[in-house]
Write the C-alpha cells for this entry.
Amino acid sequence: MVFFWAFVVGGLFCVIGQIMFDVFKLTPAHTLSGFVVAGAILDGFGLYEPLIDFAGAGATVPISSFGNSLVHGAMVEGEQHGLVGVVTGMFEVTSSGISAAIIFGMIGALLFKPKG
C-alpha cells in the first residue's frame, strides 16, 4: 500500500501542476515557485510531515519537499540559535542537495556537448 499511496499523492502533485499550466496559464517558473511556497506553508502549519509519513516518496520527491526542507531547517535551527539559526538552518538542511545538483550539473556539462 505504501507504493500505491506514493503513486497517488505524487500523481496528485502532477495533476495540480498540469492544471496550473493549462487552466491558469502559469509559466514553469511560476508553477515551481508555487510548489516550493506551498510546501513551505504546509510545513509551517505542521501539515507536510504527516503527508510524508503517509505518502513517502510521493511527498518527498516533488519540488514542494524543497520548501518543506527550507522551513523545517529554519525552524529547528531557529529554536536552538535564534535569528542567526533561522538563516543558517535553511542552508544547512538543503546544502547537500544543492551541492549535488551543482556537482552533477558540472559533470554533465563537461561530459556532454549541447547540439546547436
Summary: The chain has a mean pLDDT of 90.
